[in-house]
Amino acid sequence: MPRDGALTFDDLRSRLRSLRVVCGKCGRAGRYFVERLIDRRGCDGKVVDLLADLSAECPRRIANSFNDRCNAHCPDIPRVM
What we know:
The protein is α+β, with helices and mostly antiparallel strands. It has five helices and two strands. It has a two-stranded antiparallel sheet with strand order 1-2. The longest helix is centred in the middle third of the chain and has 8 residues.
């Protein structure tokens, strides 16, 4: 799978044990173990693809309002990168 400059789970392996995903707009919150993500999605799995999959059914992601869209993100990534 081409990397396209995206952050992969392998990039996070030595920096984070778990990856938090939160959204202040829809209240989404969860924690995913990086090793388990690698087992399921592979070392080359992209964080951006995970976020898209997790928020695919969010009503705010589906909404046409650009200003009120789901804001699912991983707040720990900037701290460790």
